[in-house]
């Protein structure tokens, strides 16, 4: 189910028992994906409980990888915690829809 999940709540899910990651203002539960991730468990654990947008984009993930995200989405940040795409050019927030 997709619901609003705060950054504070995401922060609690940062060890291999439960790994949540924020990418482009959406929240993903990748606990069951750790062993399957072609880029390894450690890269996911490195951003567990945090915003992994920059790391995710730095790798240049394929369209398949972007598609796979859907499977792990559990929620989205509350409107007040969404990073401003215009004021924050480092947040490459529109890339996943335009690529
Ligand atoms: C739920 C989020 C993620 C999904 C679904 C995902 C999926 C994938 C997939 C399918 C690949 C295979 C290559 C491709 O298709 O692009 C891959 C490779 C990789 N990913 Fe991820 N990934 C995620 C998050 C991350 C994050 C946050 C990082 C870094 C902190 C990361 C680092 C890597 C690396 C280093 C590779 C290997 C690239 C290579 O050796 O060619 N991934 N990932």
Automatic annotation (TrEMBL):
It is found in: Endoplasmic reticulum membrane; Microsome membrane. GO terms for cellular component: endoplasmic reticulum membrane. PANTHER family: CYTOCHROME B5. Pfam families: Cyt-b5. InterPro entries: Cyt_B5-like_heme/steroid-bd, Cyt_B5-like_heme/steroid_sf, Cyt_B5_heme-BS, Cytochrome_b5. Transmembrane segments: none annotated. It comes from Parnassius mnemosyne (clouded apollo). It is a single-pass membrane protein. GO terms for molecular function: heme binding; metal ion binding. Residues 2-78 form the Cytochrome b5 heme-binding domain. Keywords: Electron transport, Endoplasmic reticulum, Heme, Iron, Membrane, Metal-binding, Microsome, Transmembrane, Transport. Belongs to the cytochrome b5 family. This is Cytochrome b5.
């Amino acid at each position: 189910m997709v619901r609003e999940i705060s950054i504070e709540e995401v922060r609690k899910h940062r060890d291999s028992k439960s790994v949540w990651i924020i990418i482009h203002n959406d929240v993903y539960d990748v606990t069951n994906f750790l062993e399957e991730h072609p880029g390894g468990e450690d890269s996911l654990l490195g951003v567990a409980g945090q915003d992994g947008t920059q790391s995710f984009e730095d790798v240049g993930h394929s369209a398949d990888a972007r598609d796979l995200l859907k499977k792990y989405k559990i929620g989205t940040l509350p409107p007040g915690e969404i990073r401003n795409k215009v004021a924050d050019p480092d947040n490459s927030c529109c890339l996943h829809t335009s690529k």
